[in-house]
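As noted in the main text, all predictions were made from sequence alone. Below is one such record, for Calcium-binding mitochondrial carrier protein SCaMC-2 isoform X6.
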Amino acid sequence: MNLKSLIVIVFFGITENTYNSEKDYMDIGEDIGVPEDFTTGEMVSGMWWRHLVSGGVAGGVSRTCTAPLDRIKVYLQVHGTRHCKIKSCFRYMLREGGSISLWRGNGINVLKIGPESALKFMAYEQIKRTIKGDDVRELGLYERLMAGSLAGGISQSAIYPLEVLKTRFALRKTGEYSGLVDATKKIYRQGGLKSFYRGYVPNLMGIIPYAGIDLAVYETLKNRYLQTHDKNEQPPFWILLLCGTASSTAGQVCSYPLALVRTRLQADMSPGKPNTMVAVFKEIIKNEGIRGLYRGLTPNFLKVAPAVSISYMVYETVRDFLGVNMT
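Prediction:
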């Protein structure tokens, strides 16, 4: 996809209809998309928190099922040519720590779903009220994107130390940390509170391109489908699955270099190593070329479809159990 076609897709998607709630169950391990809008009735009835719980449970199950691919992605991002193939990386992890080691870092990845979702939801609602003022109108898509990006930035700022811990646990060797408290103490001793915010800048910078592309591509594909079908009927699951997979993939491709740089900064505090975003970019391009900015992208792609499918099925099950009837 060249730059011209990308701009066309984004522009066309943003000028289409509103971003509906069907995509909010699609958890792929990155919670930086635009949050859902709830109706006044759903807010008053308390249906919103049941929906958030359903999404949280779905995200936890989905992330756990795809955790081995996520850990392989982190390894490839950080170690570059040291473990340059998925198969060799997989074998190394099994030799080093056994099958259970494939899930290192997953506990923290699941743990952060609750506070991250709650913070983003509360921030999003407050920002929406600030933008609308006394106006009762619904926000336009540009306004939703802005509000969602700001809310994502706020929630990411609050839970970012957990992101650093997740990366360190995913990369740790057997016996390196005895637990979460031990890891926190050791990271703090390496560089104080700053250690828990390494990679924070590229992480924030990646929110807008990811959320914008994800939002635009999903709406574009879904509305293309609705042009030839009954607009009053909900698109079938497989259409939403394809739209969600394609939009998430497009968003990840555009923001992936920033995510890779973030992960490398989170992982490495060795003396003499680059400790700024620009320095890491330069080192990667110098030593590995442009392709180095996309290391680990393949396992990231491989986990999108199963992550979306699993989170959808679990979400529907929990939603029915809690009596959620989202309109």
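Residues 141-171 form the longest helix (31 residues). The chain has a mean pLDDT of 81. These features were considered when defining construct boundaries for the mutagenesis experiments described in Section 2.9.
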